[in-house]
């Protein structure tokens, strides 16, 4: 019984240290990060094709590039041709690397004619230390 | 040596199962989630006070409410009085609960006169299964 309590206590302690260290690192890293919402309007006739390309390039980038922290594309419910992509890069260098990858270049060239307007809106994150919580809550 | 290898292998296996289960659960949960970007313009004279309130209510909500998956406020760099808040709630019920909490009500009443315009833009997430990656990468 005593051993079980010890194990539980150790797990709680380790968990707390893990979460605390993630929060600290997120805070430290946030200064050099590039946080952006890309606001895109797609020509309606290309919407389906565009969504396919956007999903694919987002997934590949997050998976293959360590400097791509997050690419989270969304579609405005009340007007489905409006797309918003929350993008977070570890640094400007990571972003430059990203736009030179073959998967991004393929997406860029392949979707140019589908896009009516594009606005890259750079952001300051107000609470970067709370980003890790997104994950912690997603797994519940 | 053999034991060490076994431990490493066990850790890799556990890690893989953990990440895979998070991704699956995120996918399952995404259908009933409420995903939104709140677009806010603040009167310039109240900007500092508003940012303080917004940061506080976001942090408290994520910390105290299990149904608030993410509140991620950002400030538009080129026009600092424009605020964008990415909000993710586990369900409509979680959202309704959130807007009835004392901390949200305090924020709402306390900032009403600071806000020039507010647009709640509901979204469909295109790649919800990649949200957990945000966290995994933040801790690098």
Ordered list of secondary-structure elements with their pairings:
The structure is a homodimer of 140-residue chains.
Chain A: H1 2-30, E1 34-42, H2 47-64, E2 68-76, E3 82-89, H3 92-99, H4 102-111, E4 115-125, H5 131-138
Antiparallel strand pairs in A: 1-3, 1-4, 2-3
Tell me the Rg of chain A in angstroms: 19 Å
Please list the strands of the largest sheet of chain A in the order they lie side by side.
2-3-1-4
Largest interface: A-B, 49 and 48 residues
The total beta strand count of chain A reads 4
Low-confidence stretches of chain A: 17-25
Entry summary:
The structure is a homodimer of 140-residue chains. By secondary structure, chain A is of the alpha+beta class.
Which features would summarize this protein structure in a list?
140 residues, 5 helices, homodimer, alpha+beta, 52% helix, 2 domains, Alpha-Beta Plaits
What does this molecule look like?
Two copies of one chain form a homodimer. By secondary structure, the first copy, chain A, is of the alpha+beta class. Chain A has two domains: 1-31; 32-124, Alpha-Beta Plaits (2-Layer Sandwich). Helix content of chain A is 52%, strand content 26%. The first copy, chain A, contains five helices and four strands. In chain A, strands 2-3-1-4 form a four-stranded antiparallel β-sheet. In chain A, helix 2 runs antiparallel to helix 4. Chain A is elongated and about 65 Å long. At the A-B interface, helix 1, helix 2, strand 2, strand 3 and strand 4 of A face helix 1, helix 2, strand 2, strand 3 and strand 4 of B.
């Amino acid at each position: 019984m005593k051993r079980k309590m010890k194990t539980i206590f150790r797990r709680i302690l380790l968990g707390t240290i893990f979460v605390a260290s993630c929060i600290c690192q997120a805070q430290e890293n946030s200064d050099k990060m590039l946080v952006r919402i890309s606001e895109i309007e797609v020509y309606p006739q290309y919407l389906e094709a565009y969504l396919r390309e956007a999903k694919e390039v987002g997934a590949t980038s997050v998976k293959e590039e360590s400097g791509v922290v997050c690419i989270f594309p969304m579609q405005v419910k009340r007007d489905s041709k409006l797309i918003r992509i929350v993008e977070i890069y570890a640094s400007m260098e990571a972003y430059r690397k990203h736009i030179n990858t073959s998967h991004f270049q393929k997406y860029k060239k392949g979707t140019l004619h589908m896009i009516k307007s594009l606005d890259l809106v750079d952001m300051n994150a107000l609470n970067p230390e709370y980003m890790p919580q997104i994950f912690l809550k997603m797994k519940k």
